[in-house]
Amino acid sequence: MTSRGSNTGSSGPLRTDEKIAHDPILQFIAPEIIDQTVESLSNSPLDAIGLAFTSSSFKVGVSGEQELLARLSSVSHGIRLNTTGTAATAAIQALKLEKIAIMAPSWFDEDLCSDGKTYFRDQGLDIVSATPSGPMGGPLTINPAATATAVKNLVARTGAKAVFIAGNGQRAIGAIDQFERDLSITILTANQVLLWASFEGTDIRRQVEGYGRFFATG
Which residues fall in a coiled-coil region (predicted)? Predict the structure, then answer.
């Protein structure tokens, strides 16, 4: 990842002052990349394919994402497709959550966070905040303690009753249960909701432990 406007990629962990460039967000879902990938994966005996790139959902918006999924359905051979955005929306609606704060990673800029707020609000969801408030330091340096501190600070600042930890590079899934116990709020993460959506229609959801209370809802 590089800072916006940079001409070259960086090596090693993302620095705290860098923001993900917007052009690669759109390149990720370009036909010559993602269509070929989905078609290749769909030749395997799969039940679901997850598109784990939160920023793409935010960047193209609800209508753009629907167009993307419609396009990909022509090459997915009937395999169910989920994006982080559609999965998060389904989870929020299933739990009837209100006063949700989006904790975007530190490498999202304010424009991308604003896109995220619009993405969910366009679907009638109650978003009270969307900020790059995740732990600083980049994907390879994030740990549960830093994430817990960031979540606590965000809840204290916004009064949120639920937090969506956006960005599939924010490693938080292993600490969800502790967050929910300590803060008495619902925690959703990008990878968690994508996993949940991929298990739709199966009994596997109820067998998952340690990934948040909402798996028990089936």
Answer: none
| Closest-CA residue to 76 (of 16, 22, 35, 24) | 35
Positive or negative, the Cα torsion across 76, 78, 83, 86?
positive
d(CA 119, CA 106) in angstroms, rounded, equals: 19
Work out the burial of residue 99: count CB atoms within 10 Å of its CB; fewer than 13 is exposed, 13-18 middle, 19 or more buried: middle
Residue 99 amino acid letter: K
CA distances from 153 to 61, 87, 135, 146 (A): 28, 25, 11, 11
Q: What is the CA radius of gyration of the chain?
A: 17
> In this structure, are residues 61 and 122 in contact, taking their beta carbons and an 8 Å threshold?
yes
What does the alpha-carbon distance between residue 59 and residue 65 come to, in Å, rounded to a whole number? 9
CB atoms within 10 A of CB 198: 19
Residue-level pLDDT at 24: 84
pLDDT of residue 218: 58
Q: In which element (H, E) is residue 100 found?
A: strand 100-103
pTM of the full structure: 0.86
Q: Which residues of 1-38 are buried (b: 16+ CB within 10 A; e: fewer)?
A: bbeeeeeeeeeeebeeebbbbbeebeeebeeeebbeeb
Count how many residues are written for the chain. 218
Distances (CA, A) of 201 to 48, 92, 144, 156, 198: 11, 17, 31, 36, 9
